[in-house]
From TrEMBL, chain A:
<dbReference type="InterPro" id="IPR027417">
    <property type="entry name" value="P-loop_NTPase"/>
</dbReference>
<protein>
    <submittedName>
        <fullName>AAA family ATPase</fullName>
    </submittedName>
</protein>
<dbReference type="InterPro" id="IPR041679">
    <property type="entry name" value="DNA2/NAM7-like_C"/>
</dbReference>
<keyword id="KW-0067">ATP-binding</keyword>
<dbReference type="Pfam" id="PF13087">
    <property type="entry name" value="AAA_12"/>
</dbReference>
<keyword id="KW-0378">Hydrolase</keyword>
<dbReference type="InterPro" id="IPR050534">
    <property type="entry name" value="Coronavir_polyprotein_1ab"/>
</dbReference>
<keyword id="KW-0547">Nucleotide-binding</keyword>
<keyword id="KW-0347">Helicase</keyword>
<feature type="domain" description="DNA2/NAM7 helicase-like C-terminal">
    <location>
        <begin position="286"/>
        <end position="398"/>
    </location>
</feature>
<dbReference type="Pfam" id="PF13604">
    <property type="entry name" value="AAA_30"/>
</dbReference>
Amino acid sequence: MTSVAFDPSAEAARATREILDDTLRGDARGVVVDSPPGAGKSTLVVRAALELAAAGRPLMVVAQTNAQVDDLVLRLAEKEPELPVGRLHSNDPDPYDKALDDLGNVRKSARAADLAGLDVVISTAAKWAHVKGVEPWGHAIVDEAYQMRSDALLAVAGLFERALFVGDPGQLDPFSVVGSDQWAGLSYDPSASAVSTLLAHNPELPQHRLPVSWRLPASAAPLVSHAFYPYTPFRSGTGPGDRRLSFGVPSDGSGPDRVLDEAAESGWGLLELPARHTPRTDPEAVRAVALVVRRLLDRGGAAVSERSADPVPLTPDRIAVGTAHRDQAAAVRAALAELGVGGVTVDTANRLQGREYDVTVVLHPLSGRPDATAFHLETGRLCVLASRHRHACVVVCRAGVAELLDEHPSTEPVQLGVTVKFPDGWEANHAVLSHLSEHRVTWSP
Amino acid sequence: MSLISTLARLEAVESGRAQPLATVRHRHVAERPLVLVPLTTAGEAGAPLGALVGTDREEPRLLVVPQPRDRDLRFAFLADLAEAVLPYVEDFADDVEAAERSETDPETGKKVKVEVELCADAPQLVVPGRAGVEYVRLLGRSMRFRRTAEQDPETPFPAPPRVPLLGRWLTHYGERARVPGSSLLLAATDLLNRHWATGQSSLEDQHLGALLAWIDPPEGASGAEAALRAELGRDRDGQLLCPPAGPATDPAFDNRLLAPAVERYDRARHALASAEDGEAADERLGDLHRAEREIRRLVLTQLRPTWHAVWRALDLVRALPPGPRVADRWTRDRWSFTGHRDRVRAGEPPQPRRDDAVTAANKLAARESAQTQLEAQEALDDPLVMAGRRLTGEAFVGEVVEVTMAWSESKRPAPRPLLTVRTDDLPHLAEGVKAYRSLEGKPQTAQFVRYEDDGSLVLRVLDRMGRGREPAEGSVPEKGDRLVWTLFEHDQRVGPKLPDPEETPWTHGGPPRADATESPDPVTPEDLL
């Protein structure tokens, strides 16, 4: 059902070709790639790594978390089992995924010198920062570069001559636990993202973007693109009928069941509880989230997608619950355990970055709040929560968020020299909310 | 705001008095701090109006600029301020103790211990509020690049001799105040807000008078009433009963009292300048002195209540016993003071206008590590702070109900005892999460293993049990011990070493260039209305 004018595969392939061209044959010291959610960023990183290795260029890869590093190593080994890969790790106990021990061509060490000469060496930015006194690498790939802080790049940039920077500008910006206003507006503000510093000093670097999201369904891509990437739109790789969600057990007419039906039908569902100011771990909302997950499993959900012709049963590992705060995640986990649900991922937006599920259930960051702080309004937070799913996203929220937004316009001070990010969280929240309100199910537990 | 501080605020509203947020004092308060209460002129940034300064609460030194727009008078004020502050600062510079610092030997590249001096104590500056800290920074910036006639005989407007030096010290203090937990430059409001929760908003808590009203209300009044009076109460002439703690003054004071007085002063000066003979000049000089005395009197009325409030705030926090780890943080402040003393003595130039990329990153890293360290230390020092962390699931108190010896599976088995701990807290534990407890002041690490059926939890102790097969005596908790475990680390790991500024990489613009003079912003069409 893809439109004639837009062939997603061809578009994506063209973008990838251009990126690899600039990386392998261009003369710029850096190449920047912006990737919307689920646009095949990891695939691109793996492909670029393999091509650079094949061209005989020693490569270092910088990722942000150990999980990301291990994931990349596994993907590389899957594509090219013969490729000699080094996994540089920390001195902590259990520093890497045990699955790496089964890979014959992956050497693991806590010392960079032990891994010298391997085609590809992969580690986290934090570990790379401690590497000193080694011959610099000809090439680097910096993954999740928009989540990397400028000071982290400063610590590792001496290790490579040229680099490919890949990341999603719409996700959560890096942050600091202490004030850093005194450097706001400086091109090398240490708390800003690595890419903003890089581009401020090297504006001539080629910039690319991946045009197709393979993760987001046709129901979600337009909203996410419009709300979070207004000036760099993208499309979904699949068409309106390509993904379907169905249930073996019919609705019992309760709020959670109705919102699930709505989400299965349209890709979005808003379960709206009565307006009320609550503590962060709002017991009713938390229970509503748990109930939605419980019913999702009980009703025998099955997903049809381009990946297989037959419906695939919706298992707990294909479901995630997203929250803004850690204590909320803990409360949801406890509520799920009480309902006898296990195996469902429950985490904060920060930790869900880069992950993918069939269905997500989101506790709205502003639900039940008396105020809208910069933290809760942050564009990236909502973007992460609203873009993890392949089929449907159910948002649980107290009524009154639109009014709350109107009472709390953005009041962040304007800093000279800082590039204003569009859209701001206020606008993005309104955009998402107005779309969700078309899929609203009101319910009093 | 944490749940426990919200609760404390609610209790403050209900009881009409501020509620404690701490059982010990978490900041160092010097025996002989220098209190500085500055005032600024409305409408002109960095034009001081006056200040009360001194180490003796009964005898502050009053400095006033009768005509704040007169640059000569401003310089005279700054010179006086230097004479009030610098001798106090320099008093601490020569009382030193021997200390060691590890430095990298430039020839061998190895770490070596170097014997250095560490000042035995450091001067402490206390201002009324955060705006005061900001003003110290502003004064520092406005002074440190000035040139004296001695430094540069050609300079058209030479600064009085000690003014640039004062600027460098104030800059250093302003910058140090940004390090969490530091006490070189304190704001009285921050001191109070750290230790008490009031029943008003945190914005209102920036008003020193209102804050003190909540913590220490007058006999028979509730905190809320007293705070309202402190904020809004005016006398018959429309003047605030409790003048703002500055540096900004109350507009009613500016308009009705200060402006006419300054005008009289200006007229008197003008009249003196145009005096035609000695007798007239003498008389007009008397008028001028009277006008100046009147301004001094007026400014003092605004300064004196704040001066006493700052000392009152110091009394209140001094009444709390210091937290055990406060001295450790003060030692860092002493290092900071000693470091700047050495830079000044070595004849280094004043702090640059902006940090370069490497310095900025280093400062941010140091402050982040100070912040985490401060949070950990405050919790370890103070059961009330720890209670807040327990409520958020970051710590728990539990009784050891069983100890099972176990050993690691290696060639030389090391002890890895299992503890069964019963707790009523709800820590955020998951497999492999580490918990730390304090053993003789050092953290001992354990790892969460599993929950037992009865809800108690099992921890595996990982370190600090000696080198032998059997754990060292006293290193393993015993049955019946009630221990505090934290899920946060007690110490900070040392961060990575950043490149030297001369090796700033291409991603950050390369090394800073000394020759690059900054060009002013180009004029764009938007600049013209």
